[in-house]
Write a structure and sequence with these properties.
about 70 residues; mainly alpha; 434 Repressor (Amino-terminal Domain); globular; TransReg_Diox_bact_type; Helix-turn-helix transcriptional regulator; DNA-binding
Amino acid sequence: MIIAQRIRELRAENHLTQAQLAKMVGCSQPMIVLWEKEVCEPTASAIVRLAEALGCSCNYLLGYDGY
């Protein structure tokens, strides 16, 4: 799942912990873990918030294009 990989990579590039990203996105830290481990996928609204927090486009998170 490309979303999980991109969340992990962008979080690391932005020097964010899972807890910090969760706070920025408005979800729990365990939810970030689930997304990064490919247990479940973020909702459309969560993808928008993730993109804003990580400084990329929704399309990039979904694997469609560059930043």
